[in-house]
């Protein structure tokens, strides 16, 4: 039940990639907006730190058998992010790095029997701990771009792009609030995903996988993509999370 070597590698590289973006920020830049509406870079760094600790809670749950949720409530999650974001720049950077290290150590120390334990995500989905590295991969690679320091989705490994596009598209399949579309990245090995309600004609959206990812998770309006819609633009998918 342990995560495979590729996933562990993507997890470790994601942590390093994210921390490199953090290191590129000067103190004044932390108070400036990031790419997420309503948040500064300090808020995003605080979220990354507290997310690492929340995932560590799941590993503790799996190891001890004592129910330890990621967050006790949505209010606790938001309060911890806001409090962490108010730290001085040096303390906030150290917080992010320390939380990253704690999670890595918890993963490395998880005993064999704990990998088959069942825990629940913040949304209540039952998982085994081998999903934790992927949950963190999504956070580090995507939010490293959201920090808006210079990284782009084109910097993400193809494996992360493929898995994340597939995960989001699968979640949009059958949803009545999503336009009917066929998502066909032109550099991901011929992968094709149908999203939105079944039946009827679907708008085909094509383009580089990195551009597809940015669009399908709401980070772009579809720049770099082509669509068979009348105006040539891909429709807007509903919120990812």
Beta-strand segment tally: 6
Task: Profile the largest sheet.
Answer: 4 strands, mixed
Helical/strand content category = alpha+beta
Using only C-alpha atoms, the radius of gyration works out to 19 Å
* Bulk shape: globular
Q: Largest beta sheet: what is the strand line-up?
A: 4-3-5-6
Cα distance spanning the termini: 27 Å
> CATH class of the largest domain, anyone?
Mainly Alpha
Specify the CATH architecture of the largest domain.
Up-down Bundle
Average per-residue pLDDT, rounded, comes to 96
- How many structural domains are formed by the residues? 2
Poorly predicted residue ranges: none
β content, as a range? 5-15%
Layout: helices, strands, pairs:
Layout lengths: L4 H19 L3 H4 L10 H24 L9 H12 L3 H21 L9 E2 L5 E2 L4 H15 L11 H15 L8 E5 L7 E3 L7 E5 L1 H8 L9 E2 L14
Parallel strand pairs: 3-5
Antiparallel strand pairs: 1-2, 3-4, 5-6
Q: Can you offer a commentary on this structure?
A:
By secondary structure, this protein is of the alpha+beta class. It has 2 domains: 147 residues, dinb family like domain (Four Helix Bundle (Hemerythrin (Met), subunit A), Up-down Bundle), CATH 1.20.120; 70 residues, Nonspecific Lipid-transfer Protein, Chain A (2-Layer Sandwich), CATH 3.30.1050. Helices cover 49% and strands 8% of the residues. The protein contains 8 helices and 6 strands. The strands form 2 sheets. The chain has a 4-stranded mixed beta sheet, with helices on one face. Helix 1 packs parallel to helix 6. The longest helix is centred in the N-terminal third of the chain and has 24 residues. The mean pLDDT is 96.
